[in-house]
Amino acid sequence: xxxxxxxxxxxxxxxxxxxxxxxxxxxxxxxxxxxxxxxxxxxxxxxxxxxxxxxxxxxxxxxxxxxxxxxxxxxxxxxxxxxxxxxxxxxxxxxxxxxxxxxxxxxxxxxxxxxxxxxxxxxxxxxxxxxxxxxxxxxxxxxxxxxxxxxxxxxxxxxxxxxxxxxxxxxxxxxxxxxxxxxxxxxxxxxxxxxxxxxxxxxxxxxxxxxxxxxxxxxxxxxxxxxxxxxxxxxxxxxxxxxxxxxxxxxxxxxxxxxxxxxxxxxxxxxxxxxxxxxxxxxxxxxxxxxxxxxxxxxxxxxxxxxxxxxxxxxxxxxxxxxxxxxxxxxxxxxxxxxxxxxxxxxxxxxxxxxxxxxxxxxxx
Length: 365
Description:
This protein is an alpha+beta fold. It folds into three domains: 1-36, no CATH class; 66-147, Orthogonal Bundle (DNA polymerase, domain 1); 153-357, 2-Layer Sandwich (Nucleotidyltransferase, domain 5), CATH 3.30.420. The chain has helices at 64-67, 71-83, 86-89, 98-110, 127-138, 140-146, 149-156, 164-168, 212-223, 247-264, 268-271, 281-287, 300-312, 322-333, 340-357; strands at residues 3-4, 7-13, 16-21, 25-26, 36-38, 158-159, 172-178, 182-189, 194-201, 231-236, 276-280, 291-292, 295-296. The strands form four sheets. It has a six-stranded mixed sheet with strand order 6-11-10-7-8-9, sandwiched between helices. A hairpin with a 2-residue loop joins strand 2 and strand 3. Helix 13 runs antiparallel to helix 14. The N and C termini lie far apart (83 Å). The relative contact order is 0.10.
């Protein structure tokens, strides 16, 4: 039995997807509409990118992506894709992190992009993402409004969810970073003034497992030294449970994090409001350009620079109390134990304020 059709079939031939007409009468039943699409009389420029037929990997066949943009627009986009550095690409929406690195690596390996269609060959970029990337390159200002730093951070990197209006009422935060040997914290107000910045040496992680009572005693002792603040921000590590060799360290981090949440969130049962939030370690690294690929590098030199600017500049990025600057500088210069937690606690606090509210949000009179 034949069904009357007006179809074009999508077939992969010679490594490329192509459209082939189907006879007026075909033995293709209506149920095969998942691999065939009705022809449309509209011009390619008017195609809806969201409903275009894709293969199983989310790649758009043919040169549909090129047809969505005029020749002038294509030239402008290709110029950016073929000349911009990784850092310059990250300025555009959706190209933060690995995608910008993949574009530059693909360019070095296969040569310049000759068409917008080739953008889909870049790892992590599928058809819908490619359309959004091209639009972002053409209209960077509108792209920034839709994906402002605050929105990007709140949706992806701050947990639990918290309303931005509530964050605007925060007067000070305590940023906490812990490792296998120490816990460090930095207390900053809305003007990015350092009110307190310390660390406490705790346990040394060994092959044995510590009981929960040990963690409770150690962490309770550290918390008693911390100042009061509106919010407490914890660093969220990126360790994967799939790496079994790191399981003891991961377990240590999870127990410490749970203890901090429980002990610092004392009023949660009363008002249902979280006072403890977590922020991705890589989000902070990307904010300060401390990432090499997916690896976070040391923030020591950046902290030294912030200390120097506090003395030399009239409007420094971070304000350090003058009576403590020498003490902080000596601590960093004498660093023989790689006190990364100490540096990271400060950088995390600065990144939190700047990413949520935008850099330069404070009034310093």
